[in-house]
Amino acid sequence: MTQQHETTQKITNAMTVDVEDYFQVSAFEKIIKREQWDTLPQRVESNTHRVLDLFAHGGIKATFFTLGWVAERHPQLIRRMVSEGHELASHGYSHIRVTQQQPAQFREDIVRTKQLLEDIGGVAVRGYRAASYSIGAANLWALDELKGAGYDYSSSIYPVKHDLYGMPECSRFACYPRGQGSILEIPVTTVELLGKKLPAGGGGFFRLYPYPVSRWALRRVNRRDLEPALFYFHPWEIDPDQPRQHNIPLKTRVRHYLNLGRMETRLKALMQDFSWGRMDQIFLTENNLNKGTGASAARVIGG
Question: What value does the mean pLDDT of the chain take?
Fold first, then answer.
């Protein structure tokens, strides 16, 4: 075994799941109103149980960023996550992007959802992920609100340039964008290539790239940067039989439906090729928090 391969095996990466149903994605918000949600076929419970089964078979613990809306309707699903050793975290109540909220609205949402998840799950909720990575340079005040509401970390910034989200000047790794004493931000993983940050942490890009490309990118982060990667996906991404939306732009259709039938096979390969764990157990250890106040804090805007 080479030294590089040993390094990859030693680093535990963060596996995360954004628990939302197919009709709750931001790309559909103009054609499916929230008032309609309860009238639509719900598949999030069965799909998330499938994800939990995959993790149980692979011996993997993960962090589940869960909508309060889902938790209210499927409390037994939440209790299964917790009972099987996964971390329960907040994805907000009803997938409203932070860019669409004022501070008071955002504060109400994050406090309400944290309390709801804690009441159902019986555990402390320490982490938060904004809908569609909708925290960026223009609304970093949201990180202060999260700190005030009792969260210990956020995973809400994507340090790339994208038409729907992104803060490319943010650090690629755990940092404090609001300075010392603020909440820890743990961005989704990117890989640096030819001076550019490219998405490497899951979502639609994982379905778009051939699997060997994703594997190479994550190994590069482990071996070259010596940092844990952060990967995410949604339960609806392993569900090629979900109801299809037809009155959507071609770009949206491609992004949402591309390679859904290949996702589960790729996930199984990913689970075998890397070591995976929970966000809190990887990033909130004393060693990593101290690191964040030093080296990571210095790279708030850079690499």
Answer: 91
Confidence of residue 293 (pLDDT cuts 50, 70, 90): very low
Q: For residue 127, what are the β-bridge partners?
A: 153
Quickly list H helices, the chain: 3-10, 44-58, 68-73, 75-83, 103-121, 141-148, 204-208, 211-220, 250-257, 260-273, 279-283, 286-291, 297-298
Position 151 in a domain: yes
The pairing of strands 190-193 and 196-199 is: antiparallel
Confidence of residue 166 (pLDDT cuts 50, 70, 90): confident
Residue 128 pLDDT class (50, 70, 90 cuts): very high
Burial class (CB in 10 A: 0-12, 13-18, 19+), 276: buried
d(CA 207, CA 255): 9
Give a yes or no: residue 31 inside a domain. yes
Q: What integer is the mean pLDDT of 203-211? A: 95
Q: What is the CATH number of the domain that holds 222?
A: 3.20.20.370
**N-terminal to C-terminal alpha carbon distance within the chain:** 30
Whole-number Å distance between alpha carbons of 191 and 271 = 19
Task: Tell me whether residue 223 is in a domain.
Answer: yes
Burial class (CB in 10 A: 0-12, 13-18, 19+), 287: exposed
303 part of a folded domain? no
Find the domain containing 192 and state its range: 3-298
Domain total for the chain? 1
Answer yes or no: is pLDDT of 24 > 80: yes
